[in-house]
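Hi W.,

Here's what went into the run:
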Amino acid sequence: MSGMRPNYRLLSRLAITGIAAVLLMLALAYWWQGNLFHELVGVAVFALLIGHNLINRWWYGTVLRTPPVAQRWAVLIGNFALLAPMLVLLITSVLISQSVFSALPLDASTMAREIHILAAYWVIAIFAVHLGMHWTIVMGAMARTFGLRSPSRMRTMVLRAVAVAIATYGAFAIAVMGFGGKLVDPYVLDMWDFQARMPEFLLNYAAIVGLIATLAHYGLRLLSRSARRA
Ligand code: HEM
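Here's what came out:
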């Protein structure tokens, strides 16, 4: 029975990532609580992500060792593609800071602010790809935690139906939030009423992440299946 005990180490690692994801959404809602709150939440996100990278640092060691099959390449590109906008977001954060790093003698240009905003939305999109590519690990940890030993057809069908529902709502949320435009234009006018509609904001972004993660998860599965057949 001991083999089926919840893997607390993995669960706590996933919890760190989950908290970082929620804080990332809160940071995206810049106008909800104002600048100081935004900057503090943003700093917490970066602190958690540094922790996430330290905990998973073994992965960097595998980069040169693992055979370059299609699925590996996809994960490799996905991981480094997330690192790039994250670093851009971090650097521009320090540059444009009005509270936490405002004492630093740095001159913030309008361009730094524009890049900061664009990087934030790209981080959300690529974070979702990252989540989708690692979804099997999350599901494995859940199955182990809830003691689900054998695969069940019924469970798979229910989970797939949930994924379809989230993805469908996600497509609607992309349109409602103007997410496509925000990936290319930092001046998209946003009239969202954060005071009245914060839960809806979070729900919409969770669904957007859900849609992109679902596509990445099944895309990766297709890739590995066709690679196995080749
Ligand atoms: C880590 C996650 C972060 C995300 C997702 C994020 C996202 C955003 C977004 C979307 C805006 C634009 C709000 C708008 O005008 O519509 C913004 C503005 C801003 N962010 Fe961040 N940010 C993050 C971290 C930080 C950090 C750590 C700092 C500083 C310590 C920071 C400082 C600022 C400042 C000063 C503005 C206002 C720029 C201006 O209007 O001139 N951000 N951020």
